[in-house]
Design a protein that fits this description.
alpha/beta, three-stranded parallel sheet
Length: 149
């Protein structure tokens, strides 16, 4: 065995199907495209979702529901997240929306809602767009304030 007689394992390579090169090739005539019809023509491209004339899935499935274009989407932040950041000295006890943006918790165009997961151990004065009832209760229980923007 040497480099001059190396070759791929049997069955590992396939020869390319050369269509439209005469009847003797076995792929002449219609060039494996069958007879007539859209798919036999040049320039044919199937529409997205086309199922050969069968009613397409997106038309078989019924429409339902409603998306409110005026809905305000809130980014939720839990109390335990704020608590850990205050303990790590990344946030002060007076927290504003700008502080949250600076720490990368929210984007500057997002609306923030403080949610009630976790336990507060420090008095926090928070000013953001919205609060859950449980978050307000937890903040005020520690003597802090929850101010809505």
């Amino acid at each position: 065995m040497d480099l001059s007689n190396l070759q791929p394992a049997k069955g590992a390579t396939h020869s390319r199907k050369r269509v439209g090169r005469g009847e003797g090739s076995g792929h002449g005539g219609t060039s494996t495209r069958g007879h007539k019809g859209a798919q036999s023509r040049s320039g044919y491209s199937r529409k997205i979702g086309f199922e050969g004339g069968q009613m397409p899935l997106q038309r078989r499935v019924p429409k339902f529901g409603f998306t409110n274009p005026n809905r305000t989407e809130y980014k939720g932040l839990n109390l335990d997240t704020l608590q850990s950041l205050v303990e790590a000295k990344k946030l002060k006890t007076k927290i504003t929306f700008e502080d949250l943006v600076e720490n990368g918790l929210v984007g500057k165009k997002e609306f923030v809602k403080i949610l009630g997961r976790g336990v507060l151990t420090k008095k926090l004065n928070i000013t953001v767009h919205a609060f859950s009832k449980s978050a307000v209760a937890a903040i005020e229980a520690q003597g802090g304030t929850a101010t809505t923007l």
